[in-house]
Every structure is written in C-alpha cells, then in structure tokens.
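Following up on my earlier thread - several people asked me to post the actual chain instead of describing it. Fair enough. Here it is, all 262 residues.
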Amino acid sequence: MMKRLLVSLMALGLWLSAAGWAHAAAGGIAWDKFPKDRLTDMAALQNGAKIFANHCLNCHAAGFMRYNRLRDIGLTEEQIRENLLFTGAKVGDTMKNAMDPVDAKNWFGGVPPDLTLIARSRAGFGMGADSGADYLYTFLRTFYRDDTKITGWNNLAFPTTGMPHVLWQLQGQRRAIYEEVKDPHDATKTTQVFKEFEQITPGTLSPAEYNLAIADLVAYLKWMGEPNQNDRARLGVWVLLFLAVFTVIAWRLNASYWKDIK
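Reply from S.P.:
Thanks for posting it. Predicted structure:
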C-alpha cells in the first residue's frame, strides 16, 4: 500500500512538472528568471512601490492592499502620503484607480485586472511559486512597436495583448526582428522566429537600469500578493530545525524506553 502511494505521488509530481513546461511552451518564448534577491531588498521593494504608483495605478487597481501596509517595507506614513498618494486618498485606503470601467472596456477591450494577486494568479501550473514573477518579469521587458495593433504595441510573452507599453519612456521604443526558419519536418515550409530587438529611440534608462527597475516592480507585485512571505520563509526554517532536533530527541527517548525489552 505504501509503495503504491509513493509511486502515485511521484507520478503526480512528474505530471505536474510536464504540464507546467507544456504550459510555458504553449505560451511561446521561454520566461526569463526573475532575480529573487530583489524580494528581500527593502530599497528594491520601495522603488517597485514607487513605479507601481506612478505607472500602473492609473489603469490597474490593487483593491486588496492598503497604502499603510507599505510600512512593512520601511516606508513611513509621511513618505507614503507625500510620494504615493495622488488622488486625495487617505493612508488607510485601498489602492484604487480612477479609471471608469466603461472607458477601460472601450479603450482596451476589457477592464484592466486588479494587480494585488497578479504574481500568484500568473504562476504556471506545476512550475513553482516563482513562475508568476518570471512571467511578469519577461512580459514587462518584451514590448515592441507594432503598427498593426490598435495600441501601437505588441508583446512577445503575451502576443496581441490589449495593454500598451506604459513604461516605453523608460525603455525607449524597439522593433522586433524575425527570421525565416525552415520547418524541420517539411523543407517546403518556413516559420517566423524571433531573433532580436532593434532599438528605435532610446529611453531614459539604459537596458541594464530598465531591467533592474522591472525587477523591483515585479518584486513589489510578488510581495503585494503575500506581504508576510519573507517572515513565513524565515519561520519555516526555524520550524524545520525544531522538528529535526525533536526527531533526534524522540528517537533517543524511544531507544531508552525499549532498551530493556527484548
């Protein structure tokens, strides 16, 4: 019975992993790895909160996050009030946007999603807890100019997205270069494969600076989905250490109880 259970668990794990990689493959390009060290860097989280308030909160909301919760990443109420509140909201209010849902649907074809849990909701099935951050990190760095789209923008990670590139002034404008590749199964057929980006106009940030800014923004989005995740991880280490020590004590105590019984 135990062997069958272990085999079933192993099969389930392999199936989840395969399903996750198939999901990623179906979505097109491979996702870049989000630099997880930004998640424990208070300065990075604060910068991510600033970018979020200045560039994302115009269209998107974070209806399950209150401004005063940003004290957990080292901001004071005065800093929150002076740098992150632009619509007359109070420090204790949730992060709402001012866009009318009807206007949003007319402009973008749909209401922009709430971003409180966006990193968790975009996690690839079976690909781990960080895959949502990997996707967002890739998505926000792969916009390019496309005059065939109504917004003038397209995206490699999410083709035909209705979202325009709101950070284009930071990154600049780029064009996607594709190349023809022969089908390995049919020499008469070719397919368009992405090759590289060509910079059209420069942004206010260098490519390295822009990547770092996006890493900070994604770190904030991931933190916002679970503000206690760093504390949970630290507590989990102590719990495992306690269980390890307790296991040794219990094992020795059991040996002491039964030593005289043959």
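Residues 22-225 form a domain with the Cytochrome Bc1 Complex; Chain D, domain 2 fold (CATH 1.10.760.10). That should answer part of your original question.
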